[in-house]
Amino acid sequence: MSTFKGKIDEIPGISVDCFLPNNYDSKAFFLSHFHSDHIRGLYEDGADFIIKRNLPLYTSALTKEIIKRKNPVLAEQVKEMDIKHPNSVTVGGIILSVTLIPAGHCPGSVMFLFETKASRILYTGDYRIGVSDVRKFRSFYDSLGNVKKIDKIYLDTTFFLDSYPMFPTRSESMSVISKLITEWTSRDENNVIVLQLSANYGYECLFKDIYAMCKMKIYIDEQNLELYSLIPQLDGCFAIDRHDARIFCKNVPFPIAQRHIRFIKPSAFRWTNSEKKATSLKNDNEGETYYVCYSTHASYEEGLAFINCLKPQQIHVCVERENPVENLHIKQLIHQALSAATRTNEAKRIKLFNVKSQNSIYPISKS
């Protein structure tokens, strides 16, 4: 869950993914995606503040539509940004280039690459990009084909711990989930699936893929249905009548008589390096219960690849944990990753210029 407080230190006058009062001196707001931990304060006093001050709220096309459906009074303030080309905005006299980069977290989720004359800042929001995919994003390269110099990354550190070294791809996880569903439901017409989800949001891709792969609708509670129904990509995924459904989310009423339940728990939190290295795990002590490793956040290995590719000067932790020991460890791992990325950069310079002595290397510029 994001703990980021909204301010980009290097760019005064903007706030990202936070609408609490500490951001009320901002002149422009940015939203990476529409999840509750990234819209804190928006539906308290944040929306009123934005409307009264006539401030822009910049976001992707899909997130704009969600906001307009959820709160039409913000329609005039929400500004869609082009995801194919850099966008130019002026905030407090500063000309700001903003590039939207697909974040791979949920429908409509984006990263923001902010560029001014003084700095280049990447805010990831929640993201997941595969190890082999990070170098494919054209927005990370300049006109000469070199990776842009990033001054600071505001990084999603949800799983930036070496206890979460790697996760299966989302397609691999979905293959397991779809087989668990179809195998069970085809065995007996009274067999049903209950998805035990760890949060009330963030499962848009899961629902969309289940419907696409299994051709079965899902019954969820009214509150979440109201939110998910705002997303056009999920049209048709949900059952209105629970008696017609065979897939349910936890804590929703479903016909229990004559029904046999298989529980599926998609999550990444239990899949530490102490667990079995498999995509799914059946808990025999809990009956027909299956845990499936499923993540919409980057693993530690994916985070390392991201840092090693972009080689930022600094990293800001955007997800702090309740355990201070874990927070300290995250910072230590980030320091190690930055040091390793710097050494890699220096090694490439030596090879390029055929320098024999390490003393001949010039320090990395921070400009």
Question: Describe it for me?
Answer:
There is one protein chain. Strand 5 and strand 6 form a beta hairpin. The longest helix is centred in the last third of the chain and has 30 residues, at 324-353. This protein is α/β, with parallel strands linked by helices. Helix 3 packs across helix 4. It is globular and about 65 Å long. The model is unreliable at 349-367 (pLDDT under 50). It has seven helices and 16 strands. Strands 5-6-7-8-9-16 form a six-stranded mixed β-sheet, covered by helices on one side. A six-stranded mixed β-sheet has the order 11-12-10-13-15-14, with helices on one face. Strands 1-2-3-4 form a four-stranded parallel β-sheet. It starts with 13 loop residues before the first strand and ends in a 14-residue tail after the last helix. The relative contact order is 0.13. It folds into two domains: 14-163 and 298-360, Metallo-beta-lactamase, Chain A (4-Layer Sandwich), CATH 3.60.15.10; 170-293, Rossmann fold (3-Layer(aba) Sandwich). Residues 15-164 form the Metallo-beta-lactamase domain. Its main location: nucleus.
